[in-house]
Amino acid sequence: MAEPLLRVESLSKAYGGVQAVKDVSFTLVPGEILALIGPNGAGKSTCFNMVNGQIEPSGGRIFIDGQDTAGMSPRQIWRLGVGRTFQVAAVFSSMTVRENVQMALLSHENRTNVFWRQARQMESGKADEILELIGMASHADRPCAEMAYGDVKRLELAIALANDPKLLLMDEPAAGMAPRERVELMALTGRIARERNIGVLFTEHDMDVVFAHADRLMVLNRGELIAEGDPEEVRHNPQVRATYLGEGLVYDQAKTKVTT
Amino acid sequence: MSLYVVQFLAGLANAASLFLAASGLSLIFGVTRIVNFAHGAFYMLGAYMAFTLTRTLDGAVGFWAAILIAAAVVAVMGALLEMVLLRRIYQAPELFQLLATFGVTLMVEDIVLLVWGPEDLVGPRAPGLEGAILVMGRPLPTYDILLIALGPIVLLGLWLLMHRTRWGVLVRAATQDRDMVAALGVNQKWLFTGVFTLGIFLAALGGALQIPRTAVSHHMDLSIIVEVFVITVIGGLGSITGAFLAAILVSLLNAFGILIFPSISLVLIFLCMAVVLVIRPWGFLGKPVVAGHKSAGVTVRPWQPWSREARIGAAIVVAIAALLPFWLGTYGLFVGAEMMIAVIFAVSLQFLMSTGGLDSFGHAAYFGLGAYGAAMAVKWLGAPMEAALLIAPLTGLVGALVFGWFCVRLSGVYFAMLTLAFAQILWSIAFQWVPVTGGDNGILGVWPSGWASSPATYYWLTLAVAVFSVAALRMLVFSPFGYALRGVRDSTLRASAIGFSRQRVQYAAFAVAGAFAGLAGALFAFLKGSIFPDALSIPQSVDGLVMVLLGGIATVSGSVVGAIVYTAASIWLMSQTDLSRLVLGGLIVVLVVAFPKGIVGSISDLVGGPLFRRRGAGPAGREAAVAGSEGA
């Protein structure tokens, strides 16, 4: 079998005595959309930040395109072709929408060490193409600081696409957006991912978004992978149901008490 | 051997006052997140107040009562300051907090001068502790033994206060999560006031306890604040135990440094600080302070290069400036050249602060390095002015490369304190290393080459260099490198996710700013014909900060206007009053509290904001918005 795009092997992270992520392994192939779900505190973001290089794992290994990323910083991992969006959107707020995308493009081409040419005239055509793709062409000249949060989230996707990524990491891409925007954003992401054969790993709390767009789901609880499979399998997994709806122990006990 | 033992004990005694001041600073920072620059001023006030009170209160009881009353009185002043000023700026960017408290320092300096006069005052010995005991055959003042004991006692007292009282628990809780403490119904206002008062009490006590040992002078404030900054950087901001350990370390280094390098003992502390920072960037017991770092340079409207109209406007202004020698006399041209030098210095600092979000409190270091580099090239190598003007940016650059390597590892207040400490170390080297730098007498006879020696030609030279500097730095701001620098400032997270290295970008910016500051310093040396340690001093750094603030921190090159206005105002002020520091300090406080956008920032807000803005109205509307923000 060919090397998958992303291979995670028994990944762990401990903070002091707290085991935030325990022995998580999974793979992701190009063009696949993989959702990582779980209740708050399940270790989703920690997992993400380890793949992205922001947090150093306490154990386990991560391979991107066959390359072991141990000890690599986020910017080195980005150079392997990994685009990233954040749970709380992070963009350059003192720049316009287009300039944000231009910066990612310039960095991709290693041209940020240029000291004389005007940056805003460099790569503007390519930036506009990406913005067009995301449906933000009309916003290109707007200052980021005055944009609605939903638009900022979309801009993050545009920035993440600038380095022709093989892998997109999206931490709650739809958080803070209106319901309709969410569906549109994920539909767009799905379309681009399939067209360009990009692997997408995302976390999300909105189950409509997850079940509509993910090819495969992984469920984390207390740092452990408790289920994995296509949406239908996961939906019917008893352990997942217990995690999300509770096991009914307290409820049952209370009921028993009342009846006796 | 005995000499070393006595030096060791003297060092420990010295540590007591340093620890008192540093623990107060740490305590205040822990809860309020303000680095109180005025801490040194309160230390000094404590000493002066104790001097006055010990003259009226007699005897052993009177002496110790005087010390405590002095500290208490100063603490009350601190509480008033907290209520009147600091409460207004808790939410402001760190730069403003540092500047406002520095403004208070300046005001206190002149007030002390007014009340106690310019002479050094010698306080009484502590009754009953006038003598000395023999330690291995060498005398050690009994008072020192008391101080050696005092440090651990105060540390223990603070520990008990923090761990065994309800108030202490609240303070510790607030240090970890202020919002949570507020949500639990604790009145934050009074908690902050209480902590600030306690911190000031400790500082004033530290000052008051010094009077039997050293003369009380009005230089105490800046010398102690630099040492305290060094201690808190080494010990870790917010950690009292860290402050204790670092105070001992620094005092011992001082004590032994004097034996080893008598003239440049501070170098030892610098080396020690450098080692600590490389191994533990947040100090012995400190924690990283990254969250909540607010940069002062952020605008809502993205910066734009000048439009054609604005370029023409700027060209006209430069042309008029170039014609000034036909009207102005010698003195006017001298002032004009001084303004141009201020412009170069200010824009180099603005590049660092506004574009880079790096608030340097020690930019004078590179100005002074350039000035001394040029002066020494003339004096020791017999270099002509032209060569010296090339050497100066290089010395500035090299200095910035050496110090910047440490500084860019840190951010926020740590960065500010470290830059200040480096500048102060250079200042003390220039001051103490007499054979090379001439010490207090400076280096004289640094005159321009023949062709540039007339006031008009020298003015033209400074004008040309200023125009070049502003243009070059503006070009840099709008280049990919400038954007990367701004990107790192806006969001380090995003920047690293698209392949930028924060440290590398900021290091390069630091070097560039240092080179331009060095150029300004060289022009300054040739203008005055001499150079003194003042060029490296804290006031020189602060002048630059005020120029940037006055021009507009959120603009690209508003400091050009800030530098010209500030230079004119301070020259005028000097001629009008002896209390220039009082006025300047007041000006800084007012600027920070009431006029934080500065001159150019306010104007471009009016022009680009409510007056002409038609958002999304097609190309015409965009043009108007562009024209508005580009003036910046």
Automatic annotation (TrEMBL), chain A:
Keywords on record: ATP-binding, Nucleotide-binding, Transport
Highest taxon, organism lineage: Bacteria
GO terms for biological process, alphabetical: D-alanine transmembrane transport; L-alanine transport; L-isoleucine import across plasma membrane; L-valine import across plasma membrane
Keyword ATP-binding: yes
Domain ABC transporter: 6-247
One GO CC term on file: plasma membrane
Transmembrane segments: none
SMART domains documented for this protein: AAA (SM00382)
Any one GO molecular function term: L-phenylalanine transmembrane transporter activity
Record has ATP-binding as a keyword: yes
SUPFAM superfamilies for this protein: P-loop containing nucleoside triphosphate hydrolases
Protein name according to UniProt: Branched-chain amino acid transport ATP-binding protein LivG
Organism whose genome encodes this protein: Lutibaculum baratangense AMV1
Taxonomic placement: Bacteria, Pseudomonadati, Pseudomonadota, Alphaproteobacteria, Hyphomicrobiales
Automatic annotation (TrEMBL), chain B:
Keyword Metal-binding: no
Family annotation (CDD domains): TM_PBP1_LivH_like, TM_PBP1_LivM_like
InterPro entries assigned to the protein according to its UniProt record, in alphabetical order: ABC_transp_permease, BCAA_transport_permease, LivM-like
Span of the signal peptide: none
Keywords assigned by UniProt, alphabetized: Amino-acid transport, Cell membrane, Membrane, Transmembrane, Transmembrane helix, Transport
Localisation per UniProt entry: Cell membrane
Gene Ontology MF: a single term: branched-chain amino acid transmembrane transporter activity
Transmembrane residue ranges: 31-51, 63-86, 98-116, 143-162, 190-212, 224-250, 256-279, 310-328, 334-352, 387-406, 413-434, 458-485, 505-527, 547-575, 582-603
Record membrane topology: Multi-pass membrane protein
One of the GO BP terms on file: amino acid transport
Keyword Hydrolase annotated: no
A Pfam entry, by short name: BPD_transp_2
GO cellular component: plasma membrane
Record-stated family: Belongs to the binding-protein-dependent transport system permease family. LivHM subfamily.
Protein name, as recorded: Branched-chain amino acid transport system permease protein LivM
Species: Lutibaculum baratangense AMV1
